[in-house]
Specification:
elongated, 274 residues, single chain, two-stranded antiparallel ribbon, 9 strands, seven-stranded mixed β-sheet, alpha/beta, 11 helices
Length: 274
């Protein structure tokens, strides 16, 4: 048997010795997940049995080998909601919360009624829209495994979303007041430089986009026909893509194209109107 404090020190030491990033935070998350308690309550736990402690140490070794802690626990968090995640979907990023936030602002300001989340992945954007607004949300993805995960996340968060399989706009038959997308936008060159935890565990299909602009070219060409009059488009972009994406959207008939930066001051969110 071991106390929560002693177990935390053991797990933190293991992660420190293996030079795992953010060892203290990961130790807390792993222990709290295994004990089904809050992060601040792990030090109040006494009498943790040896089997549970061994399971937590095994999870820590997975993190030490580069596996993202979200895949180890099977959970991630996005705008206050809990999401099941697996290597079938990208781990929801803090930067993507800004994309959902920009869409929610537009929905509320313009009384939009319908939304499409293109390339939904885990469903994090679609769930946020359904949870925080009254808009009717459709969401699509080319990956059947991703759609299964997204449907599960909608049930977990008790929201109604219409999910369907589509290769970009291929199966989109309706028009919407707003379209939101976090498409693949990593170039082949950039992918080679990504950290191993991303390349080894996160889905390549959800990351790589040829020159990085491949899917934006499709969106710029096809999104306008799927938007209602006075509709809006919200996109997540890579840090060095703003100029290229603005040009593509302008050529595709969009106006009022604005760029929002993320928490690190990098270009991250594009909003545009037709």
């Amino acid at each position: 048997m071991i106390s929560g404090g002693a177990l935390y020190r053991r797990i933190n030491k293991l992660l420190l010795e293996t030079q795992t990033p953010e060892p203290e935070a990961k130790a807390r998350v792993l222990i709290a997940h295994a004990l089904q308690t809050g992060l601040g309550d792990i030090f109040l736990q006494n009498g943790i049995d040896d089997n549970t402690a061994a399971d937590i140490e095994n999870m820590a070794r997975r993190c030490a080998n580069g596996e993202p802690v979200e895949y180890v626990t099977g959970q991630a968090y996005f705008r206050g909601c809990t999401f099941d995640v697996s290597p079938a979907v990208l781990i929801p990023r803090q930067e993507t919360e800004l994309v959902a936030g920009a869409a929610i602002e537009l929905i509320n300001a313009n009384n939009y009624n319908t939304a499409l989340d293109l390339c939904t992945g885990s469903g994090c954007i679609a769930v946020a829209l359904a949870a925080e607004t009254t808009v009717k949300v459709d969401a699509c993805d080319i990956s059947g495994a991703a759609l299964d995960t997204a449907r599960l996340n909608a049930r977990i968060n008790n929201v109604q979303i219409n999910f369907f399989n589509s290769d970009m706009f291929g199966s989109v038959k309706k028009t919407y007041d707003i379209i939101i997308s976090n498409p693949p936008y990593v170039s082949e060159v950039e992918y080679a430089e990504l950290e191993c935890g991303v390349k080894l565990y996160e889905p390549r299909l959800a990351l790589i986009a040829g020159d990085g602009l491949y899917y934006y070219k499709i969106i710029a060409k096809s999104a306008a026909r799927c938007l209602n009059p006075k509709g809006a488009l919200v996109l997540e972009i890579g840090a060095r893509q703003a100029g290229h994406v603005k040009t593509l959207l302008s050529d595709g008939g969009f106006s009022k194209i604005d760029i929002e930066r993320d928490y690190s001051g990098r270009d991250r969110v594009v909003t545009a109107r037709i």
